[in-house]
Every structure is written in C-alpha cells, then in structure tokens.
Amino acid sequence: MSMLCAALFLVLGPPTGDHIVHVDWSSAAGGGSAIADVRRNYVTAINARDARADVFYAPDAVAALSSGSIVNGAPALAERLRSALDTEQHGVTITLTPQRFVMVGATGSETGTFVETISDATATRKVEGVYVTIYARGSDGQWRIAMEVRSTGSRPPLAIW
C-alpha cells in the first residue's frame, strides 16, 4: 500500500478519540519535506488507533527504544504498536518537537525532543527525552522509517510508543 493511500484512509477514515501524540512543529527546520509528511501520517495513524503501522516502516527497520529494548523488522515494530494501542493507556500523551529534517539522496533524518506525560487520579508524571529517526526511500519511491532511537537518559520511560 502506498503512503498516499494510507494517508487518504487516515484522513477519510473513522473519527478518532483523544490524541495520544501531539507534534509541535514550531521549531522544525525542513517541516515541509517528504519525510516530515511521513511523521505527520504516522502520528495521524497512532491517534486514529490504526494498528497497520507497518506501512510506515522499512522491512528491515530497527528501533532502539527508551526502555532499553531493541525491536527488529516492520512486523515486530507494528506488533509492538498494536500492543501499545490495545492497552489504551488512558491519560498518556506524547509531545514530539522535531528540530530538524534533512534529506540527502535516498536517506533522511529527523532529530528532536519528546515529552511523555501520564496523568491519573493521583498525580501527573513527566519524562523528557531525545529521539533520532532515520528514513530510507524504497525502490518504490516511498519514504519509510528505517531506524528510530529514543533516549530518556537515566529516567525510565512512562509509555510504550
């Protein structure tokens, strides 16, 4: 499925509930690029609770998560997202603040910061971190996430995303 078809489904699909992920585009250099569009569509999919996230990943994608785990391959990454969406973590929000999108040839990168917030009846907790996302353009011309690295430093993450 092409990224355009996926994006159209997400825009025309069923209405969504509360947003889990927010993006602050205010300081993003390169926010109008094709890889920034992948980020937009990916966030839209998460907020729509669309578990078919494998369309956003390269087949051999890898993620080094802030929990310390490493996930290999688009199917495993999509399954992790499906599991996270199935738990319906109420009160969890993640705010991404991309700083820079760069594209050179068939490779692109995104760097930024994130804030995870969990609010429940007793308290609100917050963890901040940094992330790097590497994109690759496939033989079909579509940009996909090839690698993600998230770090919260020495503080444990609050949410799985």
Keywords:
161 residues; alpha/beta; seven-stranded mixed β-sheet; 23% helix; 39% strand
Largest sheet: 7 strands, mixed
Beta-strand level of the residues, as a percent range? Answer: 35-45%
Report the span from N to C terminus. Answer: 23 Å
**Segments where pLDDT lies below 50 for 5+ residues?**
1-17
The average pLDDT is 81
Task: Please state the CA-atom Rg, rounded to the nearest Å.
Answer: 15 Å
Given helix and strand content, the structural type is alpha/beta
- What best-fitting shape do the alpha-carbon axes yield? globular
Number of strands: 7
Helix tally equals 3
Q: Could you estimate the helical fraction of the residues in percent?
A: 10-25%
Helix and strand succession?
HEHEEHEEEE
Arrangement of strands in the largest sheet: 1-4-5-6-7-2-3
Would you write up a description of this structure?
With 161 residues, the chain is α/β, with parallel strands linked by helices. The chain has three helices and seven strands; from the N terminus they run αβαββαββββ. It has a seven-stranded mixed β-sheet, covered by helices on one side. Helix 1 (3-12) crosses helix 2. It is globular and about 50 Å long. The two termini are 23 Å apart.
SSE layout:
Blueprint: H1 3-12, E1 21-23, H2 34-47, E2 57-64, E3 70-72, H3 74-86, E4 92-104, E5 107-119, E6 124-137, E7 143-151
Parallel strand pairs: 1-4, 2-7
Antiparallel strand pairs: 2-3, 4-5, 5-6, 6-7
Helix pairs in contact: 1-2
Produce a short descriptive summary:
The chain is of the alpha/beta class and 161 residues long.
